[in-house]
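Please, structure for the following, as tokens.
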Amino acid sequence: MAEQGAEKNISVIGLGEMGAALARALLSQGYRVTGWNRSRAKAQKLAGLGAQVADRVLEAVKASPVIVTCVADYQTLAGLLQNPEVTDAIAGKTLIQLTTRTPAEARAGQAWTTQAGVACLEGAIQAYPMHIGTPEGSILYAGPSGTFEAVRPTLDALTGQVIHVGEQIGSAAALDLALAGTVVPGATVAFLQGAALCHAEGASLDAYLETVERSVVPGLMLSTFRASIPMIEAGNYAYGGEGAPLDAWVPGLQMVVQAARDAGINPRWNEFVLGHLEQAVAEGHGQGELAAIFEQLRKPATR
């Protein structure tokens, strides 16, 4: 691709599996990439694809007006960027921050970028490395809408699904931890618990998966999720005749716990879920929907 000006220069700091995928996606779209990694061997692999390899973070920062960061954690990122040399060099540039971190860490990072004079987007990758640079890849971004629009072509080069979730800088991190850190592993553990019960009782795992795909995920789960949001926002969990009240759910889950014990599998997950439902009933939500459990989860744990 022909040279298209300084906006096609971009630096990628952190070239692990995900960072390397980001760099490859940019290279495939004609960007001139300067990469840095603590282990030069990982960075050197991209040289064969046309990337420049920086010996120091400072060199990578100076090379481009836009810097993408994807390192191990917030502490590592702060150690790399928050020193006088790099702070001076990064002023006036744009930082696309894709290191996984908490909302509080994102806010701390924003305080630093604001003081340093850096335009920043906080991103949360909702994809595996193999999805980067493809229509299936998705990244959530939080930060100023003006910054988002200014670097939109670069964001489009990274993933097919580019979603601005708002200007509140911790929003992308919160959504990431809620989705990839909570829903996906939580739902997977629940799915595997069900698989363990089916396997122990000789039920077909193929039939189990087929039923989950056909009716449970698009039907029961999504309808329950969708019904929960307006209940949470209204603070009203009263059973409306469309789902089932907790008083009806509890006996069924007690039966699941007993079935797990009878099958000789670990019932801990089922007991955990049942415990939440029983607590909600004890708090007066017996005739409420499953969403009433939100009231427990929104409060700090008590010892």
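Residues 171-200 form the longest helix (30 residues). The two ends are 61 Å apart (CA to CA).
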